[in-house]
Amino acid sequence: MEYIRGLCWVLRYYYQGVPSWTWYFPHHYAPCFSDLVGLKDVEQARKFELGEPFPPLEQLVAVLPPLSAKALPPPLRTIFDSNDPKLAQFFPKKVSYDLNGAREVYKAVVLLPFIDAAVLKAACAPLVATLDAESKA
Q1: Predicted confidence band at 120 (pLDDT cuts at 50, 70, 90)?
Q2: Residue 57: other Cβ atoms inside 10 A
Q3: Which of 6, 52, 82, 116 would bridge 87 by S-S if both were Cys, CB 3.0 to 4.6 A apart?
Q4: Closest by alpha carbon to 111, among 45, 51, 29?
Q5: Same domain, 108 and 84
Q6: How confident is the model at residue 35 (pLDDT cuts 50, 70, 90)?
Q7: Both 81 and 37 in a single domain?
Q8: What is the pLDDT of residue 33?
Q9: Concatenated DSSP letters for 72-108?
Q10: Domain range holding 33?
């Protein structure tokens, strides 16, 4: 069902604007077509909660690899080395790849954990509060 929601999200994004700032596809792989046969209640896939976008600095923390932490203001760089297990799980020291028959690593599926937005926002908020206006811009 989440795959169908993803298709609905993309269509609405291109034809009506962002349907949800918080929805994401919660799997690393698309389903087999046979998994989609017989789906019921597809109407539910069209319903989204708009939510709010990530502020720019939190978005960078969510998407930058730890080796690119220098692109962030110094206080936010500490998130990548956090000892808090709820936060550390999102920034693994070792990354897994599924080549799935591919020969080149750039064709692999990178098996990163999905970030819990609430945990990340809670970790970023006190650090962002210490920044001056120029660093926040």
Answers
A1: very high
A2: 19
A3: 82
A4: 29
A5: yes
A6: confident
A7: no
A8: 87
A9: S-HHHHGGGG---HHHHTTS-SS-EEE-TT-SSGGGS
A10: 1-53
Do 75 and 112 belong to one domain? yes
pTM score of the predicted model:
0.81
Per-residue model confidence as pLDDT tens digits over 63-109: 999 899 999 999 999 999 888 999 999 999 899 999 999 999 999 99
d(Cα 61, Cα 68) in Å, to the nearest integer? 10
- The verdict on 1 and 47 lying in the same domain is yes
**Nearest Cα to Cα of residue 1 among 20, 25, 17:** 25
What distance, in Å, lies between the first and last C-alpha atoms of the chain?
39
Rounded to the nearest 10°, the torsion over CA 113, 119, 123, 125 is 130
Alpha-carbon distance of 132 to 68, in angstroms, equals 21
